[in-house]
Amino acid sequence: MRPMAQVAMVMNLDKCIGCHTCSVTCKQTWTNRDGTEYVWFNNVETKPGIGYPKHYEDQERWKGGWELDRKGRLRLRSGSRVKRLASLFANPDLPSIDDYYEPITYDYDTLLKAPAGPHTPVIRPKSALTGKDTAITWGANWEDDLGGAAEHAGGDPNLASLPPEAAERVRFEFERTFMFHLPRICEHCLNPACVSACPSGAMYKREEDGIVLVDQDRCRGWRMCVSACPYKKVYVNHHTGKAEKCTFCFPRIEAGQPTVCAETCVGRLRYLGLVLYDADAVTAAASVPDERDLLEAQRAAFLDPADPAVIEAALAAGIPADWLDAARRSPVYELAVRHRVALPLHPEYRTMPMVWYIPPLSPVLDAVSDMDGDNTDPDDVFHAIRDLRIPMEYLASLFSAGDVDVVAGVLMKLSAMRGYMRARTLDGTVADDLLTATGMSGADVERLYRLLAIAKYDERYVIPPAHRENAAALEGLGTGCSLDVAGGPGMGGEQSTGNGTGNGNGKIHLPLSVLPSRRNGSGS
Amino acid sequence: MTADIALWAVLPYVALTVFVVGHVWRWRADQFGWTTRTTQVLENRWLRLGSPLFHLGAFAAIAGHVLGLLVPKSWTEAVGVSEHVYHVVAVGAGTVAGVMVVAGLGLLLARRFVNGRVRRTTTRMDKAMFAVLAVVIALGMAETVGVNLLGPGYDYRETVAVWFRGIFYFQPDASLMSGAPMVYQLHAISAWVFLAMWPFTRLVHVWSAPIAYLWRPYVVYRRRSAARVPETAGR
Ligand code: SF4
Ligand code: SF4
């Protein structure tokens, strides 16, 4: 056993209202710079929908994540190491910027400089890539609330395994179909495909907390990580020619604070905490032959932070005692392992993602009302969970490699919790039948209820600060801004000095995106 | 005569010094700028064809230069390769490599200057580098195709190659070059200029060809304290 600690997240999808606050605050913090206009470390997509970038879940096409070779060994889906080196000159699986969207800005100067006159001045969208007028035809949340579903959402790769009428319903009767929001960040995987595909070894997983980062000084722009990540959460900064990705707000995490997306989440649906796992078990867990066993294999690789043997091994491995204490209070471990209501997104990609989701009950509740059932009656909801193919199989293709029973089990628990707490609060009765149906005790239900419904800041975010004595120079502290180091993601300070790249002017950008300068440009 | 000394005995050393010192400086001062500066996300269709053509052609051309310049004629003759066989192979392979490089670079330059997105990312240094590279390649093609394939032929292994090797023994014989045809002289001069520019351009990515990837473990772990100051960064 080789215990390692991982900072992980759980999101409770029933609570996401799709407000995009998380995306905006993240963007303002991290990707508000030249070359990252199209980059959203946090994006919120509406499901069903094709997502951002378009169809990213279609691994037949993008070759992201891992697969098993004929001998049952893990191999990146994009092929062998030799093949990857041979594709350095042109990566065959790289999405183009049009698969994300063409970023735009406005020529605000025209507004400001317009002379007084009878007409309201008008400004046009300009491409942030070329500076020319452009038409806005796509965006990171183009499909918000099923916008354009009639045209596009039928192409959601997750609908492919469903009965044909599912895609038809999404396409043509979307006002009657189901819908929910899916906020996505980098999964900070235990078996990261991005790190494994990086030819220069610039990407790494931090031993202390499992955060996956790109070393900006060592990245050479081979862009293999972008295609290898099945969640498409590494991006090319086309201004610097280097890869960038979600940092899990490591300077904040090191200081014991939640990530910006979690801190600002309006629905308070994000949970952050530690998970201990056995590093020696990762490869075996990611290589189980049947995709549907991946979830349990990943859970089995997690270590119980209350187990004395684990504690002993963890201390021996150098994990500090206060971290172990935090691991015992971790809401993530509680939701993912103890209550088993959180599930990984697309476990079949075999990267062992560490941002897990509590699947939404709302699509089922909508379906119950749609059939004139009573969606406050657990019986009606249980029936729907058991009988409805469309939202259930869809959720299963997202969260359990197609295993409907797993998602059904979670939704039954959520539904039973609601019924149990409603009965107890309104009538003061104890609904034992609901407990037997889901195998939970009354205490379990109340604990889960507390965590999901009323947990305060300190219970949702249990983040032990990094140990100063372990890190010679701690990023989150000190006098300067840690994001400003040369080549650091903030890049506000000095950066590449006079050299062929010629872009090191050290300017700090204001929150409005700006047109690329004409310095290098097209002239006209 | 002074010009000959300057061009054939001084310029090579100036260029090589700038090449070496420039690389050391760039490596230490600018790890962040040390990248391919890929634009594949911005334009994919032309790059998919042009980039492999250019790079593979360039590898072949480099191999040809090693063979033609560094391997003395006496060695190839000692292993029984006659001048005629050498000529046929060199001109044949050289022409193929040259055509690949020209076609590849043509496609890459076309996308770089026709596609507005890529053009925007092009720096002044890029433009200067592409201009010199294009001149070097054009002159090289003039030698291989113009002189050796279609023209009368010229045995550069008796002159240019001997002079070139002399540079590394610190005994460059300028007279060998002053008698060479003009196109060989110009090719050599432009190549030295190109080498001197190298460390200041995106070409530095060549030295980062990630061969070690083949035997490294898939997942890289690093401790935070180590992550703070990567060992390869000079600062
Ligand atoms: S989700 Fe994050 S850690 Fe996982 S493969 Fe993608 S970029 Fe890497
Ligand atoms: S801020 Fe919270 S509620 Fe709003 S979109 Fe993001 S995750 Fe959903």
Automatic annotation (TrEMBL), chain A:
Instruction: Specify where the region named Disordered lies, as residue ranges.
Output: 487-524
Transport among the record's keywords?
yes
Q: Give the protein's cofactors.
A: [3Fe-4S] cluster; [4Fe-4S] cluster
- An example of a Pfam family matching this protein is Nitr_red_bet_C
Q: Where is the composition biased (Gly residues)?
A: 487-505
Q: Which Gene3D superfamilies match?
A: 3.30.70.20
- Coiled-coil-forming residues are none
Primary location recorded for the protein, binned into one broad class: other
Domain of life, per lineage: Bacteria
The alphabetized list of GO BP terms reads: anaerobic respiration; nitrate metabolic process
Identify the keywords attached in UniProt to this record, alphabetized: 4Fe-4S, Electron transport, Iron, Iron-sulfur, Metal-binding, Repeat, Transport
**Keyword Repeat annotated:** yes
What GO CC annotations are associated with the protein?
Answer: cell envelope; membrane; nitrate reductase complex
Q: Name one GO molecular function term.
A: 4 iron, 4 sulfur cluster binding
The listed locations are: Cell envelope
Annotated NCBIfam families: narH
The name on file for this protein is: Nitrate reductase subunit beta
Source organism of the structure: Prauserella muralis
UniProtKB/TrEMBL annotation, chain B:
GO biological processes = anaerobic electron transport chain; nitrate assimilation
Q: Name one Pfam family in it.
A: Nitrate_red_gam
- List cofactor names only: heme b; Mo-bis(molybdopterin guanine dinucleotide)
Name the positions where heme b 1 binds. Answer: H55, H65, H205
NarG-like domain spans which residues? 5-224
Q: Does the keyword Cytoplasm apply?
A: no
InterPro entries the UniProt entry points to: Heme-iron_electron_transfer, NarG-like_domain, NarG-like_sf, Nitrate_red_gam
Cellular localisation: Cell membrane
Q: Name one GO cellular component term.
A: plasma membrane
What GO molecular function annotations does the UniProt record carry, in alphabetical order? electron transfer activity; heme binding; metal ion binding; nitrate reductase activity
Q: Which UniProt keywords apply?
A: Cell membrane, Electron transport, Heme, Iron, Membrane, Metal-binding, Nitrate assimilation, Oxidoreductase, Transmembrane, Transmembrane helix, Transport
Report the main location listed first in the record.
membrane
Membrane disposition: Multi-pass membrane protein
Query: What Gene3D superfamilies does UniProt report for this protein, alphabetically?
Result: Transmembrane di-heme cytochromes, Chain C (1.20.950.20)
Domain of life per record: Bacteria
Which parts of the sequence bind heme b 2? H187
**The family this protein is said to belong to:** In the C-terminal section; belongs to the nitrate reductase gamma subunit family. In the N-terminal section; belongs to the nitrate reductase alpha subunit family.
Function description: Does not seem to have nitrate reductase activity.
Q: What PANTHER family is this protein classified in? A: NITRATE REDUCTASE PRIVATE CHAPERONE, REDOX ENZYME MATURATION PROTEIN REMP FAMILY, RESPIRATORY NITRATE REDUCTASE 1 GAMMA CHAIN
UniProt-recorded name of the protein: Nitrate reductase-like protein NarX
Cite the source lineage: Bacteria, Bacillati, Actinomycetota, Actinomycetes, Pseudonocardiales
